[in-house]
Design a protein that fits this description.
By secondary structure, the chain is an alpha+beta fold. It has a single domain (37-182), classed as Glycoprotein, Type 4 Pilin (2-Layer Sandwich), CATH 3.30.700. The protein has helices spanning 19-25, 35-86, 93-100, 132-135; strands spanning 108-110, 122-129, 140-147, 150-157, 180-182. It is rod-shaped and about 95 Å long.
Length: 183
């Protein structure tokens, strides 16, 4: 009597298989991967890396841009407070350092504030990327405007990496150099 429960099925190569495929059906199949299989996997991984690395770099650039937007917002709030007390905007960042601490960034240079009317009704602040192409960064600018007891702000972002940008002379003016107005 034959015990069918303990029998192990044998792999038999079909007669139509090539010698290459028959080794997968033999009981003593070779273990491991061929060079061709390893190369296909390496090509697949390289294509995935080539697609994903630029995406990751853009995300890192966006995080760095978020940092500079936060710092420009702090500068704008400090300019509001300075103007409220002194009836004029601060002519340089060192005057604002008491309120905000030293404003600095590894990736951006903060230009000295500019104004079209001796810092009485408006002030503009630019943040220029140090190595825009390498770090994937756009330039930013913020303007603080005073008009009859109320304050307004405008923030502009460069259209593309490395494009210069500045805000207009009033809060309603468009950004310069095809910049994008943020709100």
């Amino acid at each position: 009597m034959v015990n069918f429960l303990n029998q192990q099925p044998q792999r038999v190569a079909p007669t139509f298989c090539s010698p290459f495929l028959s080794r997968f059906f033999s009981p003593k199949a070779m273990k491991g991967f061929t060079l061709l299989e390893l190369m296909v996997v390496m090509v697949f991984i390289s294509v995935l890396a080539a697609i994903s690395i630029p995406v990751f770099q853009r995300q890192i650039g966006k995080a760095r841009e978020a940092e500079v937007q936060m710092k420009l917002g702090a500068i704008a709030r400090s300019q509001n407070a300075y103007h409220y007390v002194n009836s004029t905007f601060a002519p340089n960042l060192s005057v604002l350092a008491a309120d905000t601490g030293a404003i600095s960034s590894f990736y951006y240079d903060f230009q000295e504030p500019t104004s079209s009317d001796s810092y009485i009704t408006n002030v503009k602040q630019q943040a220029v990327a140090r190595q825009p192409g390498f770090y994937q960064l756009r330039d930013y600018a913020i303007g603080v405007y005073y008009d009859g007891g109320s304050y307004a702000r405008a923030t502009c972002q460069g259209f593309d990496i490395g494009d210069p940008v500045n805000v207009g002379d009033t809060a309603g003016d468009p950004c310069t150099d095809s910049g994008i107005k943020l709100q």
